[in-house]
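USER:
Class, as today's exercise, take the chain set out below, and explain how the chain folds.
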Amino acid sequence: MKLLVIFNPGAAYGRATGKLADIRAGFESLYIQADFLLTTQPGHGTTLVAETSLAGYDGLIAAGGDGTVFEVLNGLYRHPKEARVPLGLLPIGTGNAFARDLGLPPSAWSDAIDLIHRGQTRLVDVGHVSTTDAMYYFLNIVHMGFSVDANRTALKLKFLGNSAYTLATLWRVLKLGSYPLEIEIDGETIDDDNVFMAVSNTRYTGTHFMMAPNAIIDDGLLDLTMLTRLSRRRILKLFPTIYDGRHVGFDEVTTRRARRITIRSPEAMLLAPDGEFLGHSPAEIRCLHQDLEIFV
């Protein structure tokens, strides 16, 4: 087996660097030839994959967090479909939501290497986003509104590790607002004031949040979660339930499933795919059914 590994030394607030030697040794112990390319700045993972021939490789591995997976995925999709190889991941970042959906706990890079070594793959769905100023693919989630504000705050607190997302969310509650959105769901249009809106391909987001408890990664549908305007007191009551998915039972939360979603807003709003910030509304989001082969 020969693999191309895109390694993000800045993952987990720079702590991933200390794992590099052990990860190299882990591949070598299984007689896997792994060519490592290290990222040096945001977006570099996409460039590295896009500019590297995948001919001769049996797989492409994203070593980092969800942001690294996002970059590697988008680099992979710069290649024609017939030239793409299976995608695998080593969860060594702060947020490893996609890995958790595959049954890999955070930092379980050794288990991930064993999984890749087995060579078993499956086809999963991929989300595609098109906005006026960006076009990209995602595996986990894309969201806007309150949750984007919380993620931007969490970046400043990333040195706190897993608690950064929770503390950032609680801080943003103090500045709680709502946004008027027009959302077209498979041809049906709804208008509402929303605190946040999330389109999920998998169940988890961030470090421990189960945003879409009923999401299935290969069913050809994206799961839409919308939180309508509510009081600060009410959102504080709702917030703890997002850890296990119970929030979808609240009256203020609406969930839908769709193949195609179009979002319009009076003013351009920032989107956040898989922990990154990219593109502004209006946006069209669609599901590419079983379009990617991954190691499982």
The chain has a mean pLDDT of 92. The CA atoms of residues 89 and 236 lie 34 Å apart.
